[in-house]
Design goal:
mainly alpha; 13 helices
Length: about 325
């Protein structure tokens, strides 16, 4: 059953990727801006521009261009970046570890913070802790992450000056990359000073990216815990003499993790998408920052490749969530 489920999900993933590739290909061809015009020298004639267009592979019908693009994808060839004049896939993979590091840090902060606030607000109902948690939840979900980013820069970077506001590590501590992940590289080199610098650089962008999801996790956990505490099995366990803390942390929280897992899987796509603005605001050298630069130069191969990589990440995250259901609740069957 599990293999059948996995096969059906992989088939859906392949179809989704074809759909995403067709959509981004069509959008890039209808938006204003001709890459050939941007790359043509001053005083270039119409013939020169047409020659550049043919050299970039932008000549001929859209169907022929799309067919060549799909054929390239099937062979792992994303084309050549018009702006950087390098293999597009290599450029994307070079930036991918920074984006994954930022997104995963935001995911950890949002899940840990949301669970903690949700449990505390239920455990200490009608106290200042509940009021504070509700306030954080309301603010977190009401304000976009890029606004949080700007606020963090002003408060923690410009006013308090306790955290760096750009880059991944202090310039004097930069060394050759081993894996592309600054956290992992500093751990592998056993360099605590550089590790502390990387963590300090990560806190503000990851925090800004995490807050909306943290608020959503908090609200889901709190709602599910309050519902679970009114269930018959909880009343029965109270009558058996189990403490309120044990019921809350051991039984009710376990049931609340299933909808929370669903939420995190669905929202992970928004976290990845949010890196575009957050990386630009904090000067984070990942795919998000690269996306805006690629749009500025109308770099079609690079934009198409980035969208495909984003889609693959989101599809894999959702597949992992589906598989996680079975681990959290064995009664849930994986069906194709």
């Amino acid at each position: 059953m599990a293999l059948r489920f996995l096969a059906s999900r992989l088939l859906l993933a392949a179809l989704s990727l074809v759909g995403v590739s067709a959509l981004v290909f069509a959008i890039l061809r209808v938006i204003p801006g001709d890459p050939a015009l941007l790359m043509a020298p001053v005083g270039a004639t119409a013939q020169d521009i047409e020659r550049i267009r043919q050299e970039l592979g932008l000549g001929g019908s859209w169907w022929r261009q799309y067919g060549a693009f799909l054929l390239g994808l099937a062979h792992g060839n994303f084309g050549r970046s018009l702006w950087l004049q390098q293999d597009a896939l290599r450029v994307i993979l070079g930036r991918l570890p920074a984006t994954l590091e930022l997104a995963l840090a935001a995911l950890v902060l949002s899940v840990a913070g949301g669970l903690l606030l949700g449990v505390l607000s239920v455990w200490r109902r009608r106290s200042w802790l509940e009021s504070a948690a509700l306030g954080v939840g309301t603010l977190g979900i009401s304000i976009p992450n890029f606004v949080w980013g700007l606020l963090f820069i002003v408060v923690f970077g410009a006013f308090l000056r306790i955290l760096p506001i750009s880059g991944r590590v202090a310039p004097e501590l930069e060394t050759e990359e081993l894996t592309g992940s600054a956290l992992l590289d500093t751990l592998l080199r056993a360099d605590p000073t550089a590790f502390a610098s990387v963590v300090a650089h990560l806190l503000l962008p990851a925090g800004a990216l995490a807050l909306p999801l943290l608020a959503a996790v908090f609200r889901t956990v709190r709602s599910d815990l309050l519902t679970a505490l009114r269930e018959e099995y909880v009343v029965t366990e109270r009558m058996k003499g189990l403490s309120e803390a044990r019921i809350l942390f051991w039984r009710a929280l376990k049931n609340a993790l299933i909808p929370t897992t669903t939420l995190v899987g669905v929202q992970f796509g928004f976290v990845i998408g949010g890196t575009v603005l957050i990386e630009t605001i904090f000067g984070w050298p990942g795919i998000g920052q690269l996306t805006l630069q690629a749009f500025q130069y109308r770099d079609f191969p690079l934009i198409q490749g980035i969208v495909i990589v984003y889609a693959v990440i989101v599809i894999l995250a959702n597949l992992a969530v589906d598989m996680g259901y079975a681990l959290l609740n064995p009664r849930i069957q994986l069906a194709a």
